[in-house]
Model the fold of this input.
Amino acid sequence: MIEELEIILETTSKILQKHVNHSLRQNIVSENTDILNLWNDIEKNGLPKISVKEKFGGYEIPFFSILPLIKIINNHGTPLPLSETILSNYVLSESDINPPNGIMTFATDTKNIQIKNNMISGDILSIPYLNLSKNLLIINEMNNAKQAILIDEINGEIIHKKNFLAEPRYDIRVANLNIAEIKPLNDKIDFKFLGAILRCAQMIGAMEKVLDLSINYCSERQQFGRALSKFQAIQHQISDMAVELSASSAALSAITDINLSDNNFNDIAISKIRAGAAAGKIIAISHQVHGAIGFTKEYELSYFTKNLNSWRNDFGNESFWEEFLGKTFLEKNNKNLWEYLA
Done:
């Protein structure tokens, strides 16, 4: 499995190095042939179905094992919902729904959902890259049971969210939209926890890139006759970024499976808290050391920091998961606080 995954990671890096650049990130539209060429290469190598069951044409690699792949995808700043496609296809497969070909995305939230006669109505919120995909995963809870819903043809009032995100996000209001398939969500899956893991891996991949950009810029930029990297204050700031990144990576590495157990829930919560806190510090420091150039659209730093700001809030921000840990400690533990934390 390890050797197979190494080959997949190497292949992915080559594909992304070939296709992805900052110009591509500034033109994320379905009419962009470079976007289509990138996706075709990705799909040809089977990456979207890496965690899908073999009976559905996938590789059936456990989801937690492909987190290094998620990091690479977002370290390159891939302007496609490849991470979302991988997770969506995994959830569909585990719920015994054959994932469709093509780009896939999911809704991070819903409101006023009603299902009748195999049709869905309501508000489907904060959907990444809906402009590139007609395939959509919705997780809906009805009568205390969760359902995996596949939509394969979008039709409704689409609203482009105007915010600070680098990736395009959309809300959509639908009325009697046809459901391609609907089945009970596998009871071994919690979509919120999976989404949190996904965003942690994405943040770490992006933070690695932000650190590299900061190191390179400070090594090249001259001030008072010497490189910024020679100033002790800058060295301390870069070190702080590296420490935050290392702590986040260590927290994510503690997740070795995704079974629904209290220990895994705690590990996921700690990882999301740690990655979110690190993202906030790394965003601030990286823009400090870059100065004004870091905020410009033409320079790639802001693409990564904007996404970091988005992902740290998806599937629960730091406050949400801190409260989760506190409730877990009070309700399910007979240890003292220090034993619990240690």
